[in-house]
């Protein structure tokens, strides 16, 4: 093991922090060998699997186990090259699958509260000025409404142009059809899809378009959502603006764009129970990706049940202890 650690430090020139992690992995491997009453170079695949099961039962995360296995795999790969062992016992051993976390979604009330949030009329009075708070308000309101109305990814939202064009199509950009009430977007894998846009979102978009370039400063800028400098908005800027808007709207948690996509999917599924339709609306290539929202839906139903059903919380019933000699019933 000492020779291997010298190899990764001197020959591979790994960072000091990485060498420290490798050293800790080797200590774990040595402990596993000691528990198995074997030399490290004599450990077999079943010894490794036993250690994986033990670490998993002790609560170590799947990612943590995977990192440890990676360190052990690297050691045995080196040992094979040195002729110290005939094969790598860790080669085909994988860590347990990590539980897929539920996507974070807003409640329907919170999502509507955020989408409907508007600043005071006094702040909107100067909406025609490209750098005024009212101008930003109309833009941010349109972005928020559209994200929740159509479940767009942030890249799809910021890739929208004010109108369709051959150039936009070649460069993979989408556009909004105001008359049809549809957003035509280019998703992952350059897959095109059309999604409906709700009436409130269309109204917010119309209000934004009326002031987007009222001073005709950027006549050649096709982007639907632009910064105060007339450039297509960046994803980072959109994240910060939405986070700020959610705080202004009084929501208990900061909101990011993908949270509105999750909220869209969860709320449509709760109302329709049509998983295939939600898959099409989100542009998922595999329905397994969409099925995560069924877990969210069940979570919502469970909360409704606990809150509303009169017998959801029954009192604890004490079971009398059986006296010695009394037969079981």
Automatic annotation (TrEMBL):
Primary location group: cytoplasm
Location relative to the cell: Cytoplasm
InterPro entries: CB, DNA_brk_join_enz, Integrase-like_cat_sf, Integrase_catalytic, Integrase_recombinase_N, Integrase_SAM-like_N, Tyrosine_recombinase_XerC/XerD, Tyrosine_recombinase_XerCD
UniProt-listed HAMAP family: Recomb_XerC_XerD
Superkingdom: Bacteria
Cited function: Site-specific tyrosine recombinase, which acts by catalyzing the cutting and rejoining of the recombining DNA molecules. The XerC-XerD complex is essential to convert dimers of the bacterial chromosome into monomers to permit their segregation at cell division. It also contributes to the segregational stability of plasmids.
Sorted UniProt keywords: Cell cycle, Cell division, Chromosome partition, Cytoplasm, DNA integration, DNA recombination, DNA-binding
Gene: xerC
The Tyr recombinase domain, residue ranges: 101-306
GO cellular component: cytoplasm
Subunit-level organization: Forms a cyclic heterotetrameric complex composed of two molecules of XerC and two molecules of XerD.
GO molecular function list: DNA binding; tyrosine-based site-specific recombinase activity
Active site: 153, 188, 258, 261, 284, 293
KW Ligase (keyword) present: no
Name under which the protein is recorded: Tyrosine recombinase XerC
Organism from which the protein derives: Lampropedia aestuarii
Family: Belongs to the 'phage' integrase family. XerC subfamily.
Gene3D superfamilies xrefs: 1.10.150.130, Intergrase catalytic core
All residue ranges annotated as the Core-binding (CB) domain in the record: 1-80
Biological process terms in GO annotation: cell division; chromosome segregation; DNA transposition
DNA-binding in keyword set: yes
């Amino acid at each position: 093991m000492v020779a291997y650690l010298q190899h990764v430090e001197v020959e591979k020139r790994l960072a000091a922090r990485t060498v420290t992690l490798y050293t800790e992995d080797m200590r774990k491997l040595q402990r596993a060998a000691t528990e198995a009453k074997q030399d490290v170079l004599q450990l077999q695949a079943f010894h490794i699997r036993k250690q994986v099961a033990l670490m998993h039962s002790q609560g170590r995360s799947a990612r943590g186990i995977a990192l440890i296995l990676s360190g052990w795999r690297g050691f045995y790969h080196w040992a094979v090259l040195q002729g110290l062992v005939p094969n790598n016992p860790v080669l085909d051993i994988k860590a347990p699958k990590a539980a897929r976390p539920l996507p974070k979604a807003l409640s329907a009330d919170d999502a509507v509260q955020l989408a409907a949030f508007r600043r005071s009329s006094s702040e909107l009075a100067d909406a025609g000025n490209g750098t005024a708070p009212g101008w930003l308000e109309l833009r941010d309101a349109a972005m928020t409404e559209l994200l929740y109305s159509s479940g767009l990814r942030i890249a799809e939202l910021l890739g929208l142009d004010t109108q369709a064009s051959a150039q936009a199509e070649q460069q993979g950009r989408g556009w909004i059809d105001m008359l049809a009430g549809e957003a035509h977007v280019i998703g992952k894998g350059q897959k095109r899809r059309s999604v409906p846009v709700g009436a409130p979102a269309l109204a917010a978009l119309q209000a934004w378009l009326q002031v987007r370039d009222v001073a005709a400063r950027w006549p050649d800028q096709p982007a639907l959502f632009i910064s105060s400098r007339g450039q297509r908005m960046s994803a980072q800027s959109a994240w910060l603006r939405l986070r700020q808007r959610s705080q202004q709207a009084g929501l208990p948690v900061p909101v990011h764009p993908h949270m509105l996509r999750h909220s869209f999917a969860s709320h449509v599924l709760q109302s329709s129970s049509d998983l295939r339709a939600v898959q099409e609306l989100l542009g998922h290539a595999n329905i397994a990706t969409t099925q995560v929202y069924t877990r969210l839906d069940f979570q919502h139903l469970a909360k409704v049940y606990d809150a509303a059903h009169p017998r959801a919380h029954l009192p604890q019933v004490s079971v009398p202890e059986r006296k010695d000699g009394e037969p079981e019933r």
